[in-house]
Amino acid sequence: MSDSPLLEVSNLRVSFPTRQGVTEAVRGVSFTVGREKLGIVGESGSGKSMTGRSVLRLVPAPGVVGADRLAFRGEDLLGASDKRLRAIRGRRIAMVMQDPKFSLNPVMTVGRQIAEAYRVHSDAGPAEARRRALEMLEAVRIRDPERVYGRYPHEVSGGMGQRIMIAMMLIPEPELLIADEPTSALDVTVQMQVLAILDDLCGRRGMGMIFISHDLNLVASFCDRILIMYAGRVVESCRASELRNATHPYTRGLLDSLPRLDDPRAELPVLTRDPAWLTEGGQ
Amino acid sequence: MTEQGMIGIENLRVAFGQGADSVVAVDGVSLSVRDGESFGLVGESGSGKSTVLRAVSGLNHDWSGRVAVAGVEQSRRRAKGFFKTCQMVFQDPYGSLHPRHPVDRILAEPIAIHGLGDTDGRIDRVLLEVGLGPSFRFRYPHQLSGGQRQRVAIARALVLEPRLLLLDEPTSALDVSVQAEILNLLRRLRAERGLTLVLVSHNLAVVANLCDRLAVMNRGRIVEEMTVEDLRRGEAAQPYTRQLLRASQGYDRAAAESFRDFA
Ligand SMILES: Nc1ncnc2c1ncn2[C@@H]1O[C@H](COP(=O)(O)OP(=O)(O)O)[C@@H](O)[C@H]1O
Ligand SMILES: Nc1ncnc2c1ncn2[C@@H]1O[C@H](COP(=O)(O)OP(=O)(O)O)[C@@H](O)[C@H]1O
Ligand SMILES: [Mg+2]
Ligand SMILES: [Mg+2]
């Protein structure tokens, strides 16, 4: 990681007021992201998506976000004006959301959406934008880019929607990409090819990335560093290559519960949750 | 099909749609599953795995070829008694359970349809068998976790005491810790009841955990059949299977570069 981090997050909290009381989705999470691939793993409901969304203030109402510090290249994001945030969003920090259906404009063809995303962030003309959009569709392994260009979001499959989202988010060449389960709807071979594109952008252009996933093996093999979240907190962090040697019983429990091709044991150890995990790891 | 065969499929073909828009989802599949065996069906999405299961389970009426279950040749429409032999469990336990029916009613329905007695006793026993106490009888699906819902779906399939259970991605929507619980449950039920299982999954490690043998599908066809021991040793005969194996072993830049399309 180079000198100063791209993103600094300190004591991040996200809560939702509900009729039954306040749900604390994120409870004091701190981390930094440099020009690296930071993975966030954990089971569903552990607060991964809300952590990622907080960075761009995309937590849905009635969620409330607070932090001691939330800064992109030294600039405060929590207190930034809406106008300032719009200038950063998409152009400098992009986010690929878990469900592409909610992030694509339903009444605009996918090709035009990608081309527009390019034009907002460059002074290219329409022909140039179209050419770049087609290139990008090809880069995310869409077999017939010309045909897909003219389709509407409801006309594409979930896996194709994910790749279209990725194309749209990458085309402005952001400095930081927040990718929330970006490849969960893709087949393993396509997933690998799409990850290779993200990998290259990080390596070649020095893009930083937050990669959110529930797939421990994938994160361990793809990322540089990993945060393991449980019930809104980071219970452990480690270098991705060291995940096998993780020490927290929650992390160990998750790893042990995975069936493995190289381990012929039949009965899988079942995770027993310790109530103490709920209170440790916070600030 | 041999005497002890539980499933015999010969030259199964399933097409959707008419004319130019027609999609051949399953294109000449033949396979057999022995009584008591646990058989896996793997392949990428759209390869035809679910369509094979649906033809066997009688959910799809529009197929050609030959399908025999428990030694009985099957026609397009299934006799009611068929479902006492063969039951199916789906990926999304939420979608497959009636949202406004309590567990009690979800489990009582098949018992009533098949005119079996001792409804209360059967429900209590099957709930216990899938690791849920009798207190779960009066809960609604939205009051259950994902894992508990899948247990109810398995209980519903088991309440008729079938010999054959068809499982379509039964753990794909679950967290890994819950997946482990469901895989352990299925393994125990198979041993206790001498069940035959067919497990459809895109996850090779899940199939290896529960199955003895598997078939790999690509674009409606079976690419190869192999034992789980062969799979564990990485001894696949076909390049398609080798690529699938490599892709399931985590991210690898060089591997991604080498992937190709198999038509
Ligand atoms: N609109 C909401 N109202 C109340 N709680 C919410 C809402 N949205 C999310 N949550 C809670 O926030 C927690 C974290 O959610 P999320 O970040 O989406 O988890 P993950 O991405 O790790 O699956 C969940 O436990 C969920 O209950
Ligand atoms: N009801 C249907 N109508 C039209 N096409 C279908 C239908 N069900 C499946 N298909 C098509 O059949 C092919 C195989 O699908 P499926 O058996 O669901 O694959 P898998 O379970 O391996 O993902 C796919 O191309 C799919 O789009
Ligand atoms: Mg999420
Ligand atoms: Mg399927």
Notes on the protein architecture:
- The complex is a heterodimer of chains A (283) and B (263).
- Chain A is of the alpha/beta class and 283 residues long.
- The two termini of chain A are 24 Å apart.
- Chain A contains 9 helices and 11 strands.
- Chain A has a domain at 1-87 and 217-283: P-loop containing nucleotide triphosphate hydrolases (Rossmann fold).
- Chain A is globular, with a radius of gyration of 19 Å.
- Helix content of chain A is 33%, strand content 23%.
- In chain A, the strands form 2 sheets. Chain A has a 6-stranded mixed beta sheet, with helices on both faces. In chain A, strands 1, 2, 4, 5 and 6 form a 5-stranded antiparallel beta sheet that branches.
- Chain B is an alpha/beta fold and 263 residues long.
- Chain B has a domain at 1-75 and 201-263: Rossmann fold (3-Layer(aba) Sandwich), CATH 3.40.50.300.
- Chain B has helices at 49-57, 82-85, 93-96, 103-113, 119-129, 146-158, 176-193, 204-210, 228-233, 239-247, 253-258; strands spanning 5-16, 23-34, 38-43, 64-69, 72-73, 86-89, 164-168, 196-200, 213-218, 221-227.
- Chain A binds chain B through residues 43-44, 159, 187-189, 191-193, 195-196, 199, 214, 216-218, 220-222, 253-254, 257-262, 264, 266-271, and chain B through 44-45, 146, 175-177, 179-181, 183-184, 187, 202, 204-206, 208-209, 231-232, 234, 243-245, 247-253, 255-257, 259.
- Bound molecules: adenosine-5'-diphosphate (2 copies) and magnesium ion (2 copies).
- The site of one magnesium ion (MG) has 3 residues of chain B, from helix 1.
